[in-house]
Structure formats: C-alpha cells, structure tokens
Amino acid sequence: LFNSVGTVASKEIEKPSLTHVMSYILQWNEKEVGLVEKIGEGRAIWPLTGYVIMADGTKGKIVGQTADWNNGISDNGRLMIDVRASVKLENGDFFHLRYEGRLSFTEEGQKKFGTQERLIPVKEFYLLSVGHMFTESKKYSDLHHAGIVLKGVDFVWPSTTDGDKRGELKYEIFRATP
Question: For the chain: N or C, fewer Cβ within 10 A?
C-alpha cells in the first residue's frame, strides 16, 4: 500500500484550472423579496434576487426560492454563508447553484461593515466560496455537476434607501477543471 502511495505522490499532480463562467450579482431588497428571517444564535435566512451575465454574454435572472442560509459569525470572526440559487437564462435554460463559503473582513472592512459604504475586495473583505452547478441546458451541458469557485468582487451592505433596505454582492464564478 505504501509503495503505491509513494508512486502516486512522486508523479507530478496536474493542478486544476479555472475557467470564467459568469458574473453573478445577488441583491436584497426588503420591499421586493421580504424581510430577513432571524432564527437565533446569529443565524438568519436572507431571501435574494439578482441576475447573471454568462461569459458569452447570455443574461439571466435569479428566480424561485433563492436565499442565503447564513450561519452567523464563526468564532474566528468570519461570516459563514450557505447559498442555494436558481437562475433562468434568457434562452429559457435553468441553472441551480449551491455553494458555501466564508466572508472575512479586514480591520478596515469591519469598520465599514453595516454602513452604506461599498467595501473594497481584498483590502476590506475576502469572499471565497466553493460549490456546484446543475443544469439540463444543452448549451451549457459542461456545467452540469461542475465544481465552481466563487470570488466576491463587490459588496454593499443592505442600507435604508427611500424607506426600504437594499444591498448587493457581486461574484465572479469559475468552473474548476481537473
């Protein structure tokens, strides 16, 4: 057994590559999608809406029961996310995304967190998630069961605007290819 492990370890392991799949924008607007459901111990369910722009320019809209089952802030100060999203593309195809990750803030980001100011990626927040996509799309069949990596590139905390709360989180999504 140890000889075979040594043989495998001695071979160079090919690193996976990442291919850009889409820009993915999650939005929360209290008037459109409802209130955050606070369920105790810092946990909450954030109903979401938004849209996508595929790498080839095809557009889509987040539909159905899309939400972040937010598990609250961990003991090391990171916000734990758990999202399921359904997307309908303009050509009628559907996607389902499921991913988990951590949203971390730098000292500067912690000061801005909860304010109306836009947070700057890397300098003020880090958001990296991993998950999977599912689809019956013929055009995007290579994405069915695809492992995905999501990188947060923009974050605006929900703030009160004209009497309702609005916020936005933008990701770039990449397919991990072995």
Answer: N
